[in-house]
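User: Hi! I have a protein structure encoded as tokens and I'd like to know what sequence might fold into it. I'm fairly new to this, so please keep things simple.
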């Protein structure tokens, strides 16, 4: 079985012509009665050997982190992980072009660099004494601890995000793995959010600016993903894979602030009006997902909808079956949407002017 990346690689190498590759795609699409663009395909594994190599890579990464942990320099674990990930990428990404190991090694390299800088600064920057008072058994109690200031933690995160982002760009120049652009954008997003946290000198949970900043970043990442998507409407090149990973980064940045403001993440019971509002937002996400032919928004918002719908069933007395009913309703709805995706998408696309339709993926 050959993936889209294999076909594109054959065209690049001159093994087959671009016309022959497109004829092959059209033939497979006719057989499946579904164009490739509607399937949102991306290459992950081509055989069990990919899984086998990935497991071996994870073991080496774990060993590299463990070797660096007892050393006096806190950054050693992250540095060793980054070095090991880059070295293995030379073999399994640059030479053998294995998809799943390449993704794992890229993530390990970027996270390793970020953790190296974060742990190194955490060790280097001095902590301050924090004194707290609380009442216990009718008596005033005193509690002391040594901590970093919120702005210090934010500065560490800024430096870690910068290191991860620069590492991702260097990795892209060397290996050109599709997920690398998304990793760099995620690092940039962390850089922005940590900068907001540093300006307010507050923990993230107490900073009222984090949620709107995350939403703005999410919309920006979504627009960037659409730029990649619009440059490959037929989804036959790596640009489509890059857009896929960018959509996965954008989706939680958009979904979480909206549902956070509605109280879904507070852990408390929500009202019926709130639950209906959550479902309405999810329907809006579904409309956007259908228009751009990307399912990332639906997946990212799924957990919030499950929580809201479960509480809605509980509100109407289905206490024991609320989880089962929620799973049944959402699962059935998603299955129906998957089965009739092209039909529903065709109806939605008819609502847009032709100039907009010309920029979106074609309807099968």
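Assistant: Happy to help. Inverse folding works backwards from shape to sequence: for each of the 364 positions I chose a residue that suits the local structure. Here it is:
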């Amino acid at each position: 079985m050959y993936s889209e990346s294999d076909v594109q690689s054959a065209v690049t190498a001159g093994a087959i012509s671009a016309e022959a590759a497109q004829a092959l795609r059209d033939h497979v699409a006719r057989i499946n009665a579904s164009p490739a663009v509607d399937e949102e395909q991306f290459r992950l594994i081509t055989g069990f050997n990919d899984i086998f190599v990935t497991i071996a890579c994870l073991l080496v990464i774990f060993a590299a982190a463990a070797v660096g942990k007892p050393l006096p320099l806190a950054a050693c674990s992250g540095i060793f992980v980054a070095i090991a990930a880059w070295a293995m990428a030379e073999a399994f990404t640059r030479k053998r072009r294995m998809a799943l190991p390449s993704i794992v090694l890229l993530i390990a390299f970027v996270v390793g660099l970020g953790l190296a800088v974060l742990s190194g600064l955490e060790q280097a920057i001095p902590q301050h004494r924090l004194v707290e008072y609380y009442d216990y058994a009718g008596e005033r109690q005193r509690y002391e601890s040594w901590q970093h200031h919120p702005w210090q933690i934010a500065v560490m995160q800024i430096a870690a995000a910068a290191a991860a982002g620069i590492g991702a760009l260097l990795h892209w120049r060397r290996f050109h793995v599709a997920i690398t652009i998304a990793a760099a954008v995620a690092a940039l997003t962390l850089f922005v959010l940590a900068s907001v946290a540093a300006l307010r000198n507050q923990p993230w949970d107490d900073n009222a600016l984090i949620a709107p900043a995350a939403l703005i970043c999410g919309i920006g990442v979504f627009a960037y993903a659409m730029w990649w998507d619009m440059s490959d409407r037929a989804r036959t090149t790596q640009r489509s894979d890059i857009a896929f990973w960018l959509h996965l980064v954008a989706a939680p940045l958009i979904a979480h602030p909206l549902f956070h403001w509605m109280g879904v993440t507070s852990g408390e019971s929500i009202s019926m009006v709130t639950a209906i509002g959550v479902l309405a937002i999810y329907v809006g996400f579904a409309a956007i997902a259908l228009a751009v032919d990307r399912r990332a928004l639906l997946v990212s918002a799924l957990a919030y909808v499950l929580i809201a719908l479960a509480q809605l069933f509980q509100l109407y007395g289905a206490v024991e079956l609320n989880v089962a009913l929620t799973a049944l309703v959402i699962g059935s709805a998603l299955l129906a949407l998957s089965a009739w995706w092209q039909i529903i998408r065709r109806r939605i696309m008819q609502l847009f002017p032709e100039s907009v339709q010309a920029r979106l993926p074609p309807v099968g």
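A useful reference point when you look it over: The first helix runs from residue 4 to 13. Feel free to ask if any position seems puzzling.
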